[in-house]
Amino acid sequence: MHRGDKGMNRIGNRTQIAALAGAIALLAAAGGCYYPGGPRYSADRFTYESHAWQPWTVKLTDTRTGEVVWSVDVPVGKQLVAGFNEGSGPNEYKPDEIVWGIMEKGKRFGTRDNRQPCPPKEARRIDAVLRPTPELITPVTDESATASYWDHPAPSEEREGPWH
Predict the structure, then answer these.
(1) How far is the CA of 11 from the CAs of 5, 80, 125, in angstroms?
(2) Helix, strand or coil, per DSSP, at residue 18
């Protein structure tokens, strides 16, 4: 192997590494990572994280009529991820869809399973409003969801089955 060949391999390796790093960065940006505020580029997608001292209510307003066409109170400890699909709505008055999901705060990937027709981008506005604070996480009221193993009564002696 000549000395010149070794240099070409180094340059080739650097080029491959740079190309791989660029591809990973592009996939991460295009893949839909959820960050508070949005993906940091013009994707028409928004993420709102609710905290005890920053609980959000997010509304979508039709600017042609002033009508609030969609609204959600983001629970404390959760995040709302909302975006728009152009041209997938039912008619020309609402030609787009808002696609949204509520998920655990800090989750960077996930599905947005909820859809609702909405006005086109020229006629819609997102309003994020802070609710009164502090707002605490709503406790679970279902006793079975919070009961521990020791809260349940012991099995009855009168049971029948193969274990007796």
Answers:
(1) 10, 45, 50
(2) helix
Q: What is the reported pTM?
A: 0.60
Q: What residues does each domain of the chain span?
A: 1-30, 33-137
C-alpha R_g of the chain? 26
The residue type of 123 is A
Going 88 to 100 to 60 to 32, the CA torsion angle's sign is: negative
- For residue 136, the 8-state DSSP code is P
- Spatial separation of the C-alpha atoms in residues 19 and 23, rounded to whole Å: 6
Q: In this predicted model, what pLDDT tens digit does every residue of 91-128 receive, in sequence order?
A: 988 999 999 999 988 876 678 789 999 999 999 999 99
Taking alpha carbons only, the member of 124, 120, 103 closest to residue 112 is: 103
Buried b (16+ CB within 10 A) or exposed e, 69-89: bbebbbbbbbbbbbbbeeeeb
